[in-house]
């Protein structure tokens, strides 16, 4: 019987190998659920995102899925810096995270159990 966590460690090693291969080839990459998105799959239009945000619940509304929820700005960009500049002189600025679908359909915020939100997010403040 394999040790607990062995499968997870193998998946991490596979993902690290994929990242190394793509970095060596100079290919851009984004990872979601250990899936590599190609340049074409990694596109979503600004209009699609804006339309879905118009239909989404407000930032302080409670939904069955837990979205929108606070975004902690812990993701780092290619330069190793947080994706969004933090205004240190404002205590009222907080980011909210919304799932957005590349298909153009609005995410079902009141479905329980929640649907898979997919790889794309809109971050608002």
Automatic annotation (TrEMBL):
Keyword Nuclease annotated: yes
Disordered: region residues: 1-33, 49-125
Source lineage: Eukaryota, Fungi, Dikarya, Ascomycota, Pezizomycotina
InterPro entries: N1-like, Ribonuclease/ribotoxin
Database matches in Pfam families: Ribonuclease
Gene3D superfamilies cross-referenced by the UniProt entry: Microbial ribonucleases
Bias type Basic and acidic residues, positions: 1-10
Keyword hit for Nuclease: yes
Bias kind Polar residues: ranges: 49-65
Species this protein is from: Penicillium cf. viridicatum
Keywords: Hydrolase, Nuclease
Gene Ontology molecular functions: hydrolase activity; RNA binding; RNA endonuclease activity
Biased composition range(s): Low complexity: 13-27
Protein name: Guanine-specific ribonuclease N1/T1
